[in-house]
Amino acid sequence: MTARPSEAPIGVIGVGYVGLVTGVCFATLGHHVVCMDIDEAKIALLRSGGVPIYEPGLAELMADARARLTFTTSAVELFDACRTLFVAVDTPPSPSGDADLTRIDAVIREVAARGGEHLLVMKSTVPVGTGDRVLAQLEAAGLEGIGYASNPEFLREGAAVDDVLHPDRIVIGAFDAADGDAVAALYEGVDAPVVRTTVPSAEMIKYASNAFLATKISFINEIANVCEHVGADVRTVAYGMGLDRRIGPSFLQAGIGYGGSCFPKDVQALKQLAGNSGYHFQLLNAVIEVNHLQKRLVVAKLKRRLGTLRGKRVALLGLTFKPHTDDLREAASIVLAARLLAEGAEVAACDPMVAPGGHPLFPGVEIVGGALDAVESADAVVLVTEWPEYVGLDWREVKGAMRGAHLIDGRNVLDVYAVRAAGLSYDGVGVDGAALRPVDAAER
Ligand code: NAD
Are 39 and 28 in contact (CB under 8 A)? Predict the structure, then answer.
């Protein structure tokens, strides 16, 4: 898979999960890429060949494309070398729920101060209208030579490399067709439909996609909660629904809710964006509310099994917001651990990506090196993140190390019969424990 290399190197501003994977993938396609970040430690690590994030396959691709990658903290070096600048800085939630655009603004100030001929390509997720706002800022500063395009990113952490090299679609919104053509040309060699549109539509495609996926998750979680009351099994229900091609099987896995750096903030930001324009996006309120409650239902289930949680020891298996990433942003584990501690429980936890000891996101939680250490003397264990090493645990060994005998499968992925055969009680999400029946392999 190779592209025709651009004449000038491609610039990437912000070398995080999106920026680094984007830069490395463009280098893999044959382009020269200059990656710039204000984080000196991160750039020093990258220069020495280290990779600051865990993303399957990334380190190998980076090593192969090393000769075409430059890492710098110098805006001067970046602007001198590159005409096209992909912006991939973080846009975290602000206290109001709107996207915080201070890092974008810092980049625009830098561009305005330096001038020149550049094409800014927005990869960061920004509210609809940001492109118009940036263009107005640039024009007010007399910088008509700077073009702007929106090229939102849809990668999933844990599968980011594959998602960037084999995307479902490439979305490009531009004010000027030639700028859109220039962005599209960089993706030559990537086999995917290209959606060419306006900047606001491109910005909205990103928000609407994430909000729809979050809605699917909250919907199946609501169905799961009803299943628990009526004796149905959400795993079979989701399987039966997903066979309908109008619905599809993905994102119908009931569990303890969505987390991560994108869904919570993007759903909230779309809700605020609608509100700011005078529209009350009611559906998203429910999506958000269901997601909040879903994590707390785990605590209610533990109480049903254990009575008071005061003095009880609970082990959490997994802390990252999903497997195959080291990202802890908005992970369900953060709320869960805090709620359990507030109920008076002792909490032990483990995660392949989190070093033993204390962690600022988990004050009061004893983080240990492995699952068997975490479950030692525990009254109950909760599978929080479906890392393969936890899904494949020997449950007899787990039960042997525990003081109690309760397990909550927060992701509905465990073999119920193996868990029960080990002498543990099993509670899934939307799975009627009393009426459990074998689930066909195809349904998992
Ligand atoms: P991140 O926090 O991992 O990385 C952002 C990087 O930008 C950091 O390294 C930071 O030091 C750097 N930075 C901040 N200000 C800068 C500046 N002025 N100049 C240079 N560098 C600067 O963020 P991320 O997860 O990569 O997300 C980036 C954007 O992409 C966000 O808008 C996010 O919503 C969007 N997005 C993220 C994902 C994902 O799965 N992480 C997927 C799709 C879209």
Answer: no
pTM given for the model: 0.93
Average pLDDT over every residue of 300-314: 97
**Residue positions counted in the chain:** 444
User: What is the atom index within ligand 1 of the atom nearest the CA of 17?
Assistant: 26
The tens digit of pLDDT for each residue in 2-39 reads 555 567 899 999 999 999 999 999 999 999 999 999 99
Q: Is 163 left (phi over 0), alpha (psi -120 to 50) or beta?
A: alpha
User: Residue 115 has what pLDDT?
Assistant: 84
CATH fold group of domain 10-197:
Rossmann fold (3.40.50)
pLDDT band at residue 440, thresholds of 50, 70 and 90? very low
Ligand 1 atom closest to residue 91's alpha carbon, by position in its atom list: 32
How far is the centre of ligand 1, averaged over its atoms, from the C-alpha of 42 (Å)?
13
Nearest CA residue ID for atom 3, ligand 1: 16
- Could you tell me which of 196, 202, 92 has the C-alpha nearest to residue 154? 202
Tally helices (H) and strands (E) across the chain: 17, 14
Residue 442's pLDDT band (boundaries 50, 70, 90)?
A: very low
CA torsion angle 413 419 424 426 (round to 10): 30
Q: Where in the chain is the domain with CATH 3.40.50.720?
A: 10-197, 288-443
Question: Which residues, 6+ apart, have CB-to-CB distance to 222 below 8 Å?
Answer: 290
pLDDT value for 8: 85
DSSP conformation letters of 56-119: TTHHHHHHHTGGGEEEES-HHHHHHH-SEEEE----PBPTTSSB--HHHHHHHHHHHHH-SSEE
Q: Which residues are CB-neighbours of 32 under 8 A, at least 6 positions away?
A: 5, 6, 9, 10, 68, 69, 70
Tell me the average pLDDT of the chain.
94
The catalytically annotated residue of 25, 82, 262, 350 is 262
Mean of pLDDT values over 368-381: 98
Q: Which residues are near ligand 1 (CB < 6 Å)?
A: 13-19, 36-39, 42, 88-91, 103, 106-107, 124-125, 153, 155, 157, 261-262
Task: Name the closest-CA residue to atom 10, ligand 1.
Answer: 14
CA–CA dist 390, 350 (Å, integer):
10
Query: Is 262 annotated in the active site?
Result: yes
pLDDT tier at 294 (50, 70, 90 boundaries)? very high
Identify the pLDDT of residue 98: 86
What is the pairing mode between strands 118-122 and 146-150?
Answer: parallel
* Topology of the domain covering 288-443: Rossmann fold (3.40.50)
